[in-house]
Amino acid sequence: MFGKRIKIFSLLGFEVRVDLSWVVLAVLITWSLARGVFPDYFENLPEQTYWFMGAAGALGLFLSIIFHELSHSLIARRFGIHMKGITLFIFGGVAEMSEEAPNAKAEFWMALVGPASSLLMSAMIFVLSRYGEGARWPVPAVGVLAYLAWINIALAVFNLIPAFPLDGGRVLRAVLWGLKNNLQWATRITSRLGSGFGIFLIAFGLYYIIQGQFIGGIWWFLIGMFLRSAAQMSYQQLLTRQALEGEMVRRFMVTDPVTVPPTISLHQLVDHYIYRHHFKMYPIVEDGRLTGYVTLRQLKEIPHDQWDRVTVREVAQPCSPAMTIPPDTDALQALSIMNRTGSSRLMVVEDDRLVGIIALKDLLQFLSLKLALEEME
To answer: Are residues 321 and 334 part of one domain?
Structure first.
């Protein structure tokens, strides 16, 4: 979902990060407020003032989304769910969970607190704006506060739509989960609603574009695309988690992996290993011990005319937690490491000895077979 993320601060033990796509949203909001919203409601102000108001409105929305996602994170932590942090991106913000809610009750309260926090934020800002109006605060300050009160209501209402993965969809999933005690069924129903709502927003965006409102139409179109994709992805992630839950890496690993000695040349590595076995990563074993690994990436960094003189030992990478995993680790963790690092193979290590290789294709094949068998039941 995310690209390059930058940590901006920590709050109550949670890291708050900004995805670079948020810059696009901040610019769009500032521009639309400065050029459209505030000039329509507050006439005859200097143009520079409108831009200051636009920037203040974007900053206020930024803080409102953090408050919304922080409320999710605090309730999640209360139910014992580990939170990775809060990330702001082009479509808003998300509190990143490393696991599903343990039960329907936790899911319900964790989802409901988001819109409730936005309504609370709206009420506090509204009271502040009315006070400022009575105290004759400057018009730009009161105007920005009025906008933030309204936008928090809009944020709450939009999130209450019963379409997964919006908060309303999560509330509905919690209710269905509690009624039937079947998380997969509840997720399937709500993710279909989420996908359908995404299609509606796509169509709505296209209608706007046809009517000549290009920027607004594109925005609704992109939000619809995102929600539809997120709904489908969330269901697939749940199926993956349930299928691999409780399975150990030991079950999937290849116990006689292809290894290379550190003394051979890169030319020999290519001719006798890469062209023969077609892997992109090879463990390096010397005297029965795993000493590192070599990949195609390291090979490409060496000029071709030096392959005869350079040995595997000279380009070897040391083992790290990003490339090694114990045999009794949960397969879900192996899949998470592969997803985070982009590696399709991990070395399974026990007491500095290579005991196997676990490959992404083997996990996916098992997942495909298990899901197919479950559909036949």
So the answer is: yes
